[in-house]
Amino acid sequence: MTLSPMTLIEGHKPITPASGIPVWDVDPYDAELLRDPSAYYSRLRELGEVVYIPRYSVLAVGRYETTRHVFSDHENFLSSHGVGLNDFKLEDPWRPPSIILEVDQPDHTRTRKVMSRALSPKVVKGFADLFRETADVLVDQLLGKGTIEAVTDLAEAFPTTVFPKAVGMKDVNPRHLVDYGAMVFNAVGPDNALRREAMSHAGEIVPWINAACTRDRLTGDGLGAMVYASADDGTLTEAEAGMLVRSFLSAGVDTTVTGIGNALWCLSQNPDQWQALKRDPALIRPAFEEVLRYTSPVHTFGRTAGQATEIAGFPVEEGTKVICVLAAANMDPAKWGDPEVFRIDRRPVGHVAFGAGIHGCVGQNIARAELEAVLGALIERVDRIEPAGEPVWRPGNAIRALDRLPITLIPN
């Protein structure tokens, strides 16, 4: 079928790739591929610096240097058109765009400053006791059970307890918080079964989220109040403050749930690395960075060419959607040497699990603090983390997370 110039594919305009760009008939959002994506990542890197995927008429990048370059080149590759397949300038998104994630300079600078201030290392340090005390209590409870389903019992339970307190939420619904994150991240993909299932909860969850982000539903001493203070001083409007609080909930729960679950999977599968961590708890931070590199909780995000430009010398036309496969970049042997080996002493500086450039994850300080609390509590109490069944991965259009992870915690 010949598409007219105005025909959109998954909400964006189709392109004609430049001569010489490899063409690969693959569906990067296929559920089976996403359950075990290693071969996809490898083949994407093998094919070249940039690959054309006709199914969605997009370019894809997966080699480390090119992916990092495209993802951080905010002048040529824009976020305001949406970070998924849908081009917000051509088709309305499912919700008002994020004013920090889906925005370009100079507007991005204004909102980024507000969020960076709220999530600064000094502010996050103030939550250290809350995080650690909560982790201690939770791990003690789980040790009494022995064998646990780690995704529900720990990876979801911890952030859905501490993060609403950090934000200052008066209304807490752990299931809604987790499912809202799944909705946000699956929405960046095509209109497939994964997206439709996640969005089927929108009618119930979106109004709840919007209401929970209003000033009167927040305490006066949390991150939410800090954002609303920027409305009081004129930096933001009241509505913008509510949207930034919404961003906490969009990106601050599901990603941390995934990070904790993936960390437990890595350490249960690599008992020598768990013992190394117990011998030297100072390796908690590098261990988490290695978990991020090794498992890439956010595996794919997109950019849109804001003008005619190029990738690795290949012309790229204005409006081209480019999917940046961050997980493929984080496993590029040209960058990491032995990427398939999980080593907590690797210190993988430069991994792109938190993105890169001006849109790098603004919440990475608090994510690290939560993980440090959980791993710290486990190190003090747990001798071994043993698999107690087959882990089950949950396919997602942007997130690589576990659906189930049965493990046994062997106390000291």
Automatic annotation (TrEMBL):
Keywords: Heme, Iron, Metal-binding, Monooxygenase, Oxidoreductase
Protein's UniProt keywords contain Lipoprotein: no
GO-annotated molecular function: heme binding; iron ion binding; monooxygenase activity; oxidoreductase activity, acting on paired donors, with incorporation or reduction of molecular oxygen
Similarity-based family: Belongs to the cytochrome P450 family.
Protein name: Cytochrome P450
